[in-house]
Amino acid sequence: MRRERAGKWRGSASTERARMEAAGLVTGLVTQNVDRLHHAAGSRRVVELHGALAEVRCLDCESFESRDALQLRLRALNPDLDVEDAALRPDGDAELYSQQIADFRVAACVGCGGVLMPNVVFFGGNVARPIVEEAMGYVDGSGALLVLGSSLTVFSGYRFVLRAAERGIPVVIVNRGETRGDPHATLKLEAPLSDVLPRLADALAFE
Ligand SMILES: [Zn+2]
């Protein structure tokens, strides 16, 4: 069952993207989201520039484990930990008693015993080269680059606009408000994605 946590408009826009991919209209999708919502909506060729919270990565051997699998191991290591009454903050952090923190047993990498961290790029971190190359491949293989709902402030996304512009690939930007990519845009639409994407998907499907 799909969770509706992200709100109706994003769920809807993601679904239209998946529809367009299924119709063979999308070479690939490059996202800065870390919530796997595009996968849940049905998109398959997705490059997650900033990783995904659904995975953890070993800082030593670079292997991956699903967050769900780690959760089972953490639970087994801390069978008596009771966080039912912990106050959850909006950013996902929780208030715990200092004794709970002192007693907490951290799970290490299954392969090498190394330190695990969420597989996401934090502020100031760099996107891994292979990930950038994969996304560049999508841009190079596309007839146009469609930018949806991003100010492109962060270079990790903006670089694809520069690449498309360099190669003469048309850039279409749909965003409410100015974006860093505007000077390179072939077409810029100031409109909500929830209006534009269903119409675009319909128009292309009935061409
Ligand atoms: Zn490891």
Tally of individual helices: 7
Give the end-to-end Cα distance, rounded to a whole number of Å.
33 Å
CATH class of the largest domain: Alpha Beta
The biggest beta sheet is recorded as: 3 strands, antiparallel
List the helices and strands and how they pair.
Layout: H1 8-22, E1 29-31, H2 37-41, E2 46-48, E3 51-58, E4 64-66, H3 67-77, E5 87-88, E6 94-95, H4 98-103, E7 116-120, H5 129-140, E8 145-148, H6 155-166, E9 171-174, E10 187-189, H7 193-205
Parallel strand pairs: 1-2, 8-9, 9-10
Antiparallel strand pairs: 3-4, 3-7, 5-6
The structure holds zinc ion.
Describe it for me?
With 207 residues, this protein is of the alpha/beta class. It folds into two domains: 8-50 and 124-205, Rossmann fold (3-Layer(aba) Sandwich), CATH 3.40.50.1220; 54-120, no CATH class. The protein is built from seven helices and ten strands. The strands form four sheets. It has a three-stranded antiparallel β-sheet. A three-stranded parallel β-sheet has the order 8-9-10. A hairpin with a 5-residue loop joins strand 3 (51-58) and strand 4 (64-66). The longest helix has 15 residues, at 8-22. Mean pLDDT is 88; it is low at 1-11. The structure holds zinc ion. Residues 58, 60-61, 63, 109, 111-112, 114 line the site of zinc ion.
